[in-house]
Amino acid sequence: MTDSVEPHRNDVFVAPGADVDVRATIQPGTKIWHLAQVREDARLGSDCVIGRGAYVGPGVRLGDNVKVQNYGLVYEPAVLGDGVFVGPAAVLTNDEYPRAVTPEGRLKGDDDWTAIGVTVGEGAAIGARAVCVAPVTVGRWALVAAGAVVTRDVPDFALVVGVPARRVAWVGRAGEPLVAKGDGRFVCPRTGGEYRESAGVLTEVCVRGDR
């Protein structure tokens, strides 16, 4: 490993072949697996898992207990809250108007564009091979279905599917679709947690643990 954190240093595990810049900040309990790359000035919270071949860009911020599965690509300046899941081969982009060259045909450098990031709220999940096209915000505990393409903000607790992604249901903290009880009330079939919808916004009324 070149310019990498040593395995088990400060209770951080870095597998052989991973590339972790020495300027990255990584909290205890985090594991970074084979062929993953964590760039300079990235900040990873505690107990994160960065899967094989995943990429975490310069200055990206991950909260605690974040999972970036194999070959997930999180480009700067993305910000992921605690407990976020990024599925296999999912992509969080950072270029609103992508071009390899300037209008004059010159290869673009860092000064020729401004990176814009994706923000993902606490507990949200991005399914396998989904794409979040910056700038978008995925709300708390939302669920982006596998293969979806997110081009606009996703509300808290929304389940979005398709290309472009659209909301088809509400989900609770367990990720399962909520059951409507009438009068804007919903309940989680797994945890019994209660929710209420008003003006297209879902809020928690009562949070309960797994049964």
TrEMBL record:
Keyword Aminoacyl-tRNA synthetase assigned: no
Pfam families linked = Hexapep (PF00132), Hexapep_2 (PF14602)
Check the record and name the Gene3D superfamilies matching this protein: Hexapeptide repeat proteins
The record ties this protein, via InterPro entries, to: Hexapep, Trans_hexapeptide_repeat, Trimer_LpxA-like_sf
Domain of life per record: Bacteria
* Keyword Transferase attributed: yes
Keywords, ordered alphabetically: Transferase
| Molecular function per GO | transferase activity
Q: What is this protein called?
A: N-acetyltransferase
The species this protein was found in: Micromonospora arborensis
